[in-house]
Design brief:
single chain
């Protein structure tokens, strides 16, 4: 029969492993879901900057 500390170590290790896998999958899905910079906003900011440069 397993000692109490060994059983807790096995269960804890399994939980840490499952948590690491879940975190990795979540990070991959988050990176794939949204681009880091919204393209329309970036283009709009560039256009605004060019307009300001032209009128100075």
């Amino acid at each position: 029969m397993l000692s109490g500390w060994l059983a807790a170590l096995i269960v804890g290790g399994a939980l840490v492993g499952i948590g690491a896998i879940a975190a990795g999958l979540g990070a991959m899905r988050a990176r794939a879901a949204v681009p880091p910079v919204p393209e329309k906003t970036a283009a709009s900011v560039r256009a605004d900057a060019e307009t300001v440069k032209e009128h100075l």
